[in-house]
Design brief:
- This is Cytidine and dCMP deaminase domain-containing protein 1.
- Belongs to the cytidine and deoxycytidylate deaminase family.
- The protein is of the alpha/beta class.
- The protein folds into three domains: 140 residues, 3-Layer(aba) Sandwich (Cytidine Deaminase, domain 2); 100 residues, no CATH class; 187 residues, Cytidine Deaminase, domain 2, CATH 3.40.140.
- Helices cover 38% and strands 13% of the residues.
- The strands form three sheets. A six-stranded mixed β-sheet has the order 6-13-10-9-7-8. A five-stranded mixed β-sheet has the order 2-1-3-4-5, sandwiched between helices. Strands 11-12 form a two-stranded antiparallel sheet.
- The chain is globular and about 65 Å long.
Length: 503
Amino acid sequence: MTGQIPRLSKVNLFTLLSLWMELFPAVEAQRQKSQEKEEGKHGPLGDNEMARVSTDKKQVKKTGLVVVKNMKIVGLHCSSEDLHAGKIALIKHGSRLKNCDLYFSRKPCSACLKMIVNGSAFERQVEALPEEMVSWLEPSGLQQVFQAAGVNRISYWPADPEISLLSGASGSEDAKLDAKAVERLKSNSRAHVCVLLQPLVCFMVQFVEETSHKCDFIQKISKTLPDANVDFYSECRQERVKEYEMLFLVSNEELHKQILMTIGLENLCENPYFSNLRQNMKDLILLLATVASSVPNFKHYGFYSGNTEQINEIHNQSLPQEVARHCMVQARLLAYRTEDHKTGVGAVIWAEGKSRNCDGTGAMYFIGCGYNAFPAGSEYADFPNMDDKQKDREIRKFRYIIHAEQNALTFRCQEIKPEEKSMIFVTKCPCDECVPLIKGAGIKQIYAGDVDVGKKKADISYMRFGELEGVSKFTWQLNPSGTCVLEQNEPESRESKYLQGLY
């Protein structure tokens, strides 16, 4: 359903989330950033991305991964110091990867792919069947047996693969050998290994730019800088575009073609396929940079608790600002799948285990996500889509639309454990309908904007959020401590420098 506004396709949403997960501010990345800052080393990328690009001898690129089952996200992962994203997914999901689609930010290496396709071994599945069943199975039936065996589809971003081919050092030969091994594994795999990129719908980039510029987080900053005659958001956005193009796009077209041929995509090297591919990739990078800039890394602003009496205690329980901002951008991306023609809302739930796991996310693990939409299975115009400007309350949408928080809780892939810290990130203030649900589900922390706190808008109100007790609330605001200093081990961002006139 498209409705009256541009809408992001699920395939592109999963692709964008995989790229964004590659940039997850993992513990080791934060440590490396701090070390480089102390040494005064600044690479060509932004402070947020310097630690993401591996420069070890093997030229292994950090990779993001989205695990999807029945078109629902069931896992968000990224490489760690020790393990690649594909291996992490196998460790964490195991047999639950059956019939899943995997979206990688880079074409996985042979070490990951061989383990993934191993779970889809066709012969083993047939051997496990009784002889009388095999005898009457048609070829189509055998294919169904295979499809139920393991991973269904593997999609990847068509640029530099996990084992980088961009290096001119001695490791480039190993990278080419790995690419050949991947192709051989792919040809013998029953899982469909492919590139899934869809052109954005008309005006999508323009719509994302307009709504990002007007979102709660940017507007709150703008209101506190009335004398600043600068468009800091546009400047931040341009910097992000440059950084992400360096990370996710091979700038030299001929080199890009060589990489595509090496990784088995010769059919995309001829025009108009190549030019269309490049344009689709650039559009998605631009969209990602635009959404990421809507939750800017501005040192005076972040997600803080307004409880001044317990501010130090609550601060120690909160996430690092880099991680909180990253998760909020995930929610912002989800909002562009909305079925509400007026306001898109996204929500994502994470939990933090008691000990660090193998994932690049540290102790954090994904619980669920959602966006505001009509009940599953409904079609456009099945339900009213009018807002509070309509006098007739019977034709308003509020009683029918499922809120982002409600969808995140309904379709969560793991249970919320009462003994662990769980947190929900919502792009807007939770309404009175959702606040008791969040508390009742046992979620310990809420990260949100607070522009609508205490307001009542026709059929929807935001009165309960301010009175909520028993759940820690972190809203987008100026650092209430008044010190306006950088977090410990948090590098100063380009956005911060710009706003101070230093950049």
